[in-house]
Specification:
Pfam families: Methyltransf_23. Helix content is 30%, strand content 24%. It has 176 residues and is an alpha/beta fold. It has a single domain, classed as Vaccinia Virus protein VP39 (Rossmann fold). Strands 2-1-3-4-6-5 form a six-stranded mixed β-sheet, with helices on both faces.
């Protein structure tokens, strides 16, 4: 449907994963401010509401009060100091989230010009799985993909073979 129109490979992979695990129509609370991917989800038939840029480490009200069918979090949790809090407080019973994976050959991302555009966490897949489990979620589906860079060199070669992104579909564990 969107072949060749995605600005990033991760947009295409993310939308395919979302479509496969939680097809539209559905109401979505997307963590983070409105962004280009919001429009892709809306074109797919999802009704999307984004958070307002509040500090989700401190203020989790948006996830506690939302009546959305599903919460999505695409490359958000690595920016938080304490992602456990917001993940635990999500009211919805469905979650699709993606993170950049920790790469042994590259330091965590840190913008030199934007103090908020930094990765406090870059998880290994098992760490993210454990975080979700501790917060009351069961992972139903998962996928990884690479992010090759069109440059010559040792790191670009490693990026060609090493998964960079990890996405999960999880459901809230029923508690009695």
């Amino acid at each position: 449907m969107y072949e060749g129109t995605f600005p990033h490979k991760r947009y295409q992979k993310t939308l395919e994963f979302l479509r496969k695990n939680f097809p539209a129509p559905a109401s979505v609370l997307d963590l983070g401010v409105r962004n280009p991917f919001t429009e892709f989800m809306e074109k797919e038939g999802y009704s999307v509401h984004n958070t307002s840029g509040e500090d989700l480490d401190i203020n989790t009200e948006a996830v506690k009060t939302s009546d959305a069918d599903i919460v999505t979090a695409f490359e958000i949790f690595e920016h938080l100091i304490a992602p456990f809090n917001v993940i635990k407080d999500i009211k919805a019973n469905k979650l699709v989230a993606s993170i950049p994976l920790k790469l042994w050959f590259s330091p965590a991302y840190r913008s030199k010009t934007d103090m908020w555009d930094r990765h406090f966490h870059e998880f290994e897949d098992w760490q993210f799985d454990w975080l979700l489990e501790k917060a009351g979620w069961k992972i139903i589906a998962r996928e990884k993909w690479t992010h090759p860079i069109k440059k010559i060199g040792f790191r670009p070669l490693l990026r060609f073979f090493t998964p960079r992104y990890y996405i999960i579909y999880a459901e809230r564990v029923k508690t009695s």
